[in-house]
Structures are given as structure tokens and as C-alpha cells.
Write a structure and sequence with these properties.
Layout lengths: L1 E6 L3 H10 L10 E3 L2 E5 L17 E4 L22 H4 L7 E3 L2 E4 L9 H12 L3 E5 L12 E6 L4 E6 L2 E6 L10 H10 L5 E4 L6 H9 L3 E6 L2 H13 L6 E5 L2 H8 L3 E6 L9 H7 E13 L3 H11 L4 E13 L2 E10 L1
Parallel strand pairs: 6-7, 11-12, 11-14, 12-13, 14-15
Antiparallel strand pairs: 1-3, 1-4, 2-3, 5-6, 7-8, 9-10, 15-17, 16-17
Helix pairs in contact: 4-5
């Protein structure tokens, strides 16, 4: 095939000019030999002297090595394998938790689920791919998962901002999409605080805070598997002595402990409102509440906090949309100081 032989010192300038005129054949690799560079061409260049000087370059016949194309998304692996009209039904985003990929696949693509799973496995380079087969349900907040590619090993270690979280995606709830929110809370905490993590899961908020601050944290969850992994993650991240994991219904745990804390995290957006009075009762005057709820606006969550705290005064410190849940509904977060 044809290529342009150019002096090495002028190669970058000439390459840019050729690219601008769409003359470089991107299916082949540029090669170097001695003091010259060979640029693969789609066709012979017309006079580009108005753009760059080609006087000491020449068109030659030569061989080039084929360019390896890396797919930009897992959907690229499925081109020409799944009908175009079905491609749009595949969720563009998916969760990667450690070595595990979790996908949403529409029911009408059920026959292609293994093909889709294999594409996700190749694209991510992870070890296992699962398909969501139910919504999050029950008081222990788990969902059914169907194994569709790779090794059927659901326990993994997820890394996030220097933390390591061991978990089993089939036995506990964990969202990698809350990483930024967890870091935001970590940055707000001050040394010396006593903190209550009311629905701790495997301890991502608690562990992330404990790694950065000198604190005392009570991490409560009703799921025995979450409690088990919280203990594992305390050791894995070397924060022993800072976090006290507690297994049980948070209402009963708080009744037994009679805590008074500086900060409370309530990341259970579906039903956290049912436990607001327990949180308020456990919060020192001037303490901070991080409250989460599924809502279409901020009015209802803020109203719940103010009504529950009355006659105590409430100062809203911040509010934000953490992530989308469904069209028009958000996982919202509200930070409030309660005096």
C-alpha cells in the first residue's frame, strides 16, 4: 500500500496536516525506519504546501502493520451480533464492584443474555458478570442475581478512594455509584466526633471516615452478612478500635444503647423516614444529620426532618441529588444541623 516517507523531524507536523485533510489511513500503524517515518495513506496527497512543506517527502509503496482497534464500549463488542434496534435497549451503564459486573438486560433480550454477558466480561476484564433478576427487596436490601458470564464467584473486594471493601454481591447491598457521596461526607467529618451509621451495610461510610479521622463510629445493620463483612472490612482497612459493628434492628439497638452522637448517617432512602425520630433522639444539640430519601424534590425530605425534630431548631446545611432512581425520582441527600 502507499505511504508518505517523511523526515523524522518533520513527521508530527506533516501527520497533523494529513489528518486535517483526512488522508491518513487509520487502519494501519505509522512505522519508523532510520531517520524517516512512514505514514499510511488513503490516497496520494494533493499539494499541501499551503498548509505544510512536503518538498522533502515522497509517496512510496510499503507494508504497514494493521492497527488494533479497542472497542470503546461493551456495546461495540455486540455490533453485527445483535440487531441494531435491540442494541438501544441495553443499558448503557452498569455497575462494576471489584471483579464483578452487574448488568440490567431487558426481558426481550433474554435470548442474547449470554452474548451480552460475554461482551461485558471482555470489555471490563473482570472475572464475573451477573444480570439483575429482581429489584432490591426485603429489610436486608438484597436482589436476585443471575450468573451469565465468567466465574460464578460473587464475593469480591472493591477498591474506592484508598479503601477496600470485601462483600458478596448476592448477600449484601452495595452501590459503587455512591463513592463521591461517601467522600463528600468523609471531608465534612472532624476529629473527635462520635458518629452513628444507622444502616451501615458492609461499612463503606464508616470505614472511609475511620481511615481519615480520629473518631468513634457505631455501625448498625440488620443483615447478618453485612455485619460479617463490616467486621472483615474493619480489619482489612486497619481501623480497629474506631468502629463498633452492631447487628440488629437499628430502633432496638438505639433503645438499648441510649446513644448521644455528633453525626448520624441515614443512607436507607426507601424507608429512612420511619427511623427519623430515633435519629433525632440520638443526636446531640448542634449535631449533624445526613438524611437520604427517594423523592422528586427536596420539599418532602426537609419537611420530614423539621417536623420530626420539633421543637428543636433545624438548619439545612446542604441538599443534593445523589443519583437518579427513575424518571423524575432521585436519591436525594439533605444535611441538617439540629439544635
Amino acid at each position: 500500500m502507499i505511504g508518505l516517507k517523511v523526515p523524522k523531524k518533520k513527521a508530527d507536523t506533516i501527520r497533523r496536516a494529513l489528518l486535517k485533510h483526512s488522508l491518513v489511513d487509520l487502519n494501519w500503524k505509522i512505522k519508523r525506519s532510520g531517520d524517516f517515518v512512514f505514514i499510511p495513506l488513503k490516497e496520494k496527497p494533493v499539494d499541501l504546501n499551503g498548509v505544510t512543506d512536503l518538498s522533502d517527502s515522497e509517496v512510496v509503496e510499503t507494508d504497514f502493520e494493521a492497527q488494533k482497534r479497542v472497542p470503546k464500549s461493551f456495546k461495540d463488542y455486540l455490533k453485527n451480533r445483535i440487531a441494531p434496534e435491540k442494541m438501544d435497549e441495553i443499558k448503557k451503564s452498569f455497575d462494576i464492584i471489584g471483579d464483578v459486573v452487574i448488568l440490567e438486560i431487558p426481558e426481550d433480550l433474554d435470548h442474547e443474555k449470554y452474548l451480552i454477558g460475554d461482551a461485558a466480561l471482555k470489555f471490563t476484564g473482570r472475572k464475573a458478570v451477573y444480570r439483575k433478576s429482581s429489584a432490591i427487596k426485603g429489610i436486608i436490601r438484597t436482589r436476585e442475581l443471575e450468573h451469565i458470564a465468567g466465574d460464578d464467584v460473587s464475593e469480591t473486594v472493591h477498591r474506592e478512594f484508598g479503601c477496600r471493601f470485601m462483600l458478596d454481591v448476592r448477600r449484601v447491598y452495595f452501590s459503587p455509584r455512591l463513592a463521591t457521596e461517601r467522600k463528600r461526607i468523609v471531608d465534612m467529618v472532624k476529629d473527635g466526633e462520635t458518629i452513628l451509621d444507622m444502616f451501615a451495610g458492609v461499612g463503606p461510610f464508616s470505614v472511609a471516615i475511620a481511615r481519615k479521622h480520629d473518631v468513634k463510629i457505631y455501625a448498625v445493620d440488620i443483615n447478618p452478612a453485612a455485619y460479617h463483612y463490616t467486621k472483615q472490612n474493619i480489619e482489612l482497612n486497619r481501623v480497629q478500635g474506631k468502629i463498633k459493628p452492631l447487628l440488629g434492628d437499628v430502633a432496638q439497638v438505639l433503645d438499648d444503647l441510649n446513644l448521644e452522637v455528633d453525626r448520624i448517617i441515614m443512607n436507607l432512602p426507601g424507608t429512612a423516614w420511619q427511623f427519623l425520630h430515633h435519629a433525632v433522639d440520638s443526636l446531640k444539640p448542634g449535631g449533624i444529620l445526613h438524611y437520604y430519601e427517594f423523592a422528586s424534590n427536596y420539599e418532602k425530605p426537609i419537611e420530614r426532618i423539621i417536623e420530626t425534630a420539633y421543637p428543636r431548631k433545624v438548619e439545612i446545611l446542604g441538599k443534593r441529588k445523589v443519583k437518579s432512581k427513575s424518571p423524575g425520582v432521585w436519591h436525594v441527600g439533605v444535611d441538617a444541623r439540629i439544635y
